Amino acid sequence: MAKGQSKQVSKSQSADGSDVYEEQFIPYVNKWGRLTNLLAVALSLGPAVTLLVVFDILPPSSAIIGAFAAVAVTFGWAWVIEPLSYYPVLGIPGTYMAFLSGNISNLRLPCAAAAQEAADVETGTPQASIISTVAIAASIFVNTAMLGIGAFALVSVFQALPELWRNALESYLVPAVFGAIFAQFGRDYPKVAGIGFGIALSMTLLLELGFLAFLPSYPLYAVIIVSVFGTTLIARWMWYNDMISPPDEDDE
Amino acid sequence: MVWHELAPIAPAYMEIANSPWLWLSTVPVVLAVLLQATLFLRRAWNDGREMGLSEEKLKTGFKTGLISAIGPSVAVLAGMLALIATVGGPVAWMRLTVIGSVAFELPAAELGVSQFGYSLGDEGITETAYATAVWSMTLGGTGWLLVSAFGTRHMETFRTKISNGNEKLLPVISAAAMLGAFAYFLSGEVTAGTPETGSVAVGGLAMLALLHLADSRDIQWIREWSLGIAMFVGLLAGVAVQVTVGGWW
């Protein structure tokens, strides 16, 4: 009904609309976004602290540090690269929200894109950023509720399963997920995937056959470090020698 | 082997992992997520109207966000089963509502239990090893939160600085690091046994087939479901190998 009209309004006020956006909305988002994300850092310790306080279970600090170091070696890149690469699509409010709520590429980005399309706003404008903020908030309400109810229900389903199937879920879902994610990344760089797998398998066999025993404590870290950095260095060398190229160049 | 369907045969830590205390402990952080969404929503609605966006467009945006989230949420829920089976319901819920995705939380949990020489799904995982997994998921996830909390307002500057360097090399390097890391996870599974190897291989092949199908026909829902479907196909492959050839290694 008022479609033509509203378009006109947004056009005629666009100059002052971006004023509101830059001078009111963005400062508010920056202030509260930082505050809520830092609050979440503290509150996310909830389960770990509960294990300690209620159940009196605290892993030795060496295990926590070892595990954290392994996670940092594996995902440290992603901590920086992902916000940087999704930022142009998500915008400032979307970056705070998406990195607090997770599931970005499979949930937040499609929701924001669909909403911008449906509301007929031009991508990259302040109006588009407002619409995607609204859409991401809506998606957070939906998936928090659905996952909460679903998780609760699935726990009972899982506990009622016959042992063969429960055992299968415990043992084979994880390798299947790892295989699927490896394939997903490897699709763009099959040569790098092959080399990475070769390195990791050799290192794992060396570890299991005891050839890494000269290293201090349980040398799992050596396997991770050599796999990650070995693959990265070889990929870098291949890139400089024109042996691999980013996927978008192959396609078109 | 005892075959009571209702007998608690699950590892000991599972009782703790699904206890009401743990459910309770996840509530505050989930509330923080909802709080942020509510604050941003209210502000975007008010400022959006002041910017000349019609009520109608804002409603369309909100409704589209609600509806578009349903499909992917069910897909995430399917993927969540792997986490529920290994770290319990509450932690799985919290990790996938706050920060995480299955692609991060599973490896992080695996790195936690591996500090004690276990692999997810092993029998006899101790409570301490389980707690280490919870710690490594928690601390590992804070990387993204800290970068987004402190970095978002400086993103534009960051980006121009980085692209002055070698912007085309950057995605290659980060993809290679990810491939190296997941190659490590795969080799752990492959050396664990024949059924695990079957799950890895079939899960990977299923993913490739699904993504190929999604790309060639441009079907978005297949992309959303790809991890969930590949996971179940891989699971079935593992069971099939277990009951047919058993374990060669």
From TrEMBL, chain A:
Keywords: Membrane, Transmembrane, Transmembrane helix. The chain crosses the membrane at residues 35-55, 62-81, 130-157, 169-186, 192-213, 220-239. The keyword S-adenosyl-L-methionine does not apply. This is Small-conductance mechanosensitive channel. It comes from Natronoarchaeum mannanilyticum. The lineage of its organism: Archaea, Methanobacteriati, Methanobacteriota, Stenosarchaea group, Halobacteria.
UniProtKB/TrEMBL annotation, chain B:
The chain crosses the membrane at residues 20-41, 62-85, 128-147, 168-186, 198-214, 226-248. It comes from the Archaea. Keywords: Membrane, Transmembrane, Transmembrane helix. This is DUF5058 family protein.
